[in-house]
Amino acid sequence: MLRSFFSRFAVGLVLAGLVAGAFGAHAQDTQKRGRKYKSAPPTARIDVTILRDVDGKPIENAAVIFHPMEGEKDKGNMELKSNEDGKAVIDVLPIGDTVRLQIIAKGFQTYGQDYKVDKPTLAIEVRMKRPGEQYSVYKNHPADTQNQDKDKPKDESKPSDKPAPPPSN
Question: If 0-12 CB within 10 Å is exposed, 13-18 middle and 19+ buried, where does residue 99 land?
Fold first, then answer.
């Protein structure tokens, strides 16, 4: 009999402890501890369309790489592939950031440009060009002949076509 009394008493103490613990835990939840919640900044939706320059057809499976920039420092990158319509969509870049867009497609020149993300939606169309001829210093380039004259130092020892001015007295 004494044994059943002690067992009932022990069970009652355990139950009282559990109830007191539950109220104590609830009291701790009302106190503000730890970091306060900070909501994420608003993000922009960026639609990139990749087309061939010559015929305007979409380029499938092109690597579309986003480099979020912090000043001149690259904060990492996010890479997507274009779908069969030549489109890639991203919606995790914060508004107000600068992003460096890089596009790499097999058989085309690599594209790169910086964009300021200042609107909630941004649509970018990129026309990819085929690789051009490699630049050679051994070939004449008509567009560069004007610049070559400016870069050359003038040789004063050459006789000029103009007659010398008369001596002044």
Answer: buried
